[in-house]
Amino acid sequence: MSLVAVGTVAFDDIETPYGRAEKVVGGACTYISLAASYFVTPVHIVSVVGDDFPSDMLEYMKRRGVDLDGLQIRKGEKSFFWAGRYHSNFNSRDTLDTQLNVLATFDPVLPESYRHAEYLMLGNLTPRVQLRVLDQLAHRPKLVVLDTMNFWMDSALDDLLKVIARVDVLTINDEEARQLSGEHSLLKAARVIHEMGPKYLVIKKGEHGALLFHHGQMFYAPALPLAEVIDPTGAGDTFAGGFIGWIAKTNDTSFENMKRAVIYGSAMASFCVEQFSIERLKGLTPVMIEHRVMEFAELVKF
Ligand code: AMP
Q1: Candidates 8, 152, 155: which one to mutate for ligand 1, based on the most atoms within 8 Å of Cβ?
Q2: How confident is the model at residue 31 (pLDDT cuts 50, 70, 90)?
Q3: How far is the CA of 301 from the centre of ligand 1 (A)?
Q4: Mind listing the pLDDT tens digit for each residue in 204-246?
Q5: CB-CB neighbours of 302 under 10 Å
Q6: Does the CB atom of residue 127 touch ligand 1 within 6 A?
Q7: Domain count of the fold of the chain
Q8: Ligand 1: residue whose CA is nearest its atom 1
Q9: Is the pTM of this model over 0.85?
Q10: What's the domain range around 102?
């Protein structure tokens, strides 16, 4: 089923208790599209980079079945840049720098072939851009999933609320759910967020797993305890890519199937954190993914 993914394609500087990585490939759309490509291809992306972005990475994405027709490459401009530092428990991080660069003036133009998307993943980037993408669709997709972060709640809340009102599923972390709803209890936060528009809410809790809410129904997926977490950057985006990838592959938007999607998203995220940048998302196989999903099943079966 056709899948369009929107979000940043970027450079990151990352500092974790295990070390540093400078100017490595990152960006929400990069993680989403690579994760989703293990479930459906092509993944049609909408994003923007400067001509500083490595062409071999773009070639790699193409080989994985990522359609770059909706990627603008701006001559003489710099790609989006983000720098972050993780605390020793890996569950929280500080953003040290966000340079919008090409993103500041990005106006997405959807190729004709994208306008009939059945599944839309609005990954993390300017809410105004997410709105522009929604406005260019020929019809409402079967499912629209939105992932965002506190940066946009702080800097573009009005636009963000307009996007939130138009999506089916919102995925955010626990702190962002509290910030958005003004409620500390995640149960109460879910009720407030349902009122804003999304029928489904996924609250990501890092190494404590993820919760799926749907008007009073709830599902909890643990995170897989891992011997070594090297870099959590992109785990949320990778989760989102696995989540929508599974739903698009199965073409089933029921709550029961969404539970499975949460597990597939969690399994993909568990790979992502095992190495810096997108390295661990390269070279996975369907068998490796299924094996990891079985580990999740074993973890909670009793
Ligand atoms: P995650 O760890 O899943 O929250 O995603 C981290 C990725 O998001 C990094 O690779 C960054 O390049 C990207 N990122 C960080 N801040 C933003 C932002 N404000 N808008 C869009 N993407 C961002």
Answers
A1: 8
A2: very high
A3: 34
A4: 998 899 999 998 899 999 999 998 899 999 999 999 999 999 9
A5: 3
A6: no
A7: 1
A8: 234
A9: yes
A10: 3-300
